[in-house]
Amino acid sequence: MRPGLIPFVPDMPRLRFQALHSRDAGEAFRLALTRDVRGAFNIAADPVIDPAVLADLLGARLVPVPAAVVRTAVSAGWHLRLIPASPGMVEMVLQIPIMDTTRARRELGWQPRHSAVDALRAVIEGMRRGAGMETPPLAPDSSRRRIKEVTTGVGTRP
User: What pLDDT, on a 0 to 100 scale, did the predictor assign at position 13?
Assistant: First the structure.
């Protein structure tokens, strides 16, 4: 996975999510443990990741694509065992709420040091280098295993 490898990003209005670097998550956790606070805190870095931000990050172009087309493509890829994302993932991604992080910033004094783009860039770089752990789909050789699954029929049902 590297910039330029993915030619386009589907431009769908509800495709938006937040990202956070693990170090910023750890710092928020540390602050919550060392402050006299109660309850849950929403933590996320800015900016909200949308299709335009993704396209810029991946060196791809934006292409308007109806959500129904993306759902159909993901479903086909899932059933052909070409991609590890189930069809329900599309709907989940399109319905992710955007969290308000004001309370964490105010009560914990928390500020992310890394932007959401930096966090996502770190994930992409880790995937490109094969830095994942032995968990599908982040295992370094997951693409080779996926090809083997398709050719040998592993996981098929009677």
Answer: 84
> Is-contact 65 90, C-beta < 8 A?
no
Cis peptide leading into residue 136 (ω within 30°): no
**Parallel/antiparallel/unpaired status of strands 8-11 and 61-64:** parallel
Quick: pLDDT tens for 35-62.
Answer: 999 999 999 999 999 999 999 999 999 9
**How many Å separate Cα 150 from the centre of its chain?**
24
Q: 């966090």: which residue's tokens? A: 119
Tell me, what's the pLDDT at 157?
52
CA distances (Å), 71 to each of 5, 16, 20, 110, in order?
A: 22, 16, 26, 37
Residue 97: CB atoms within 10 A of its CB come to 9
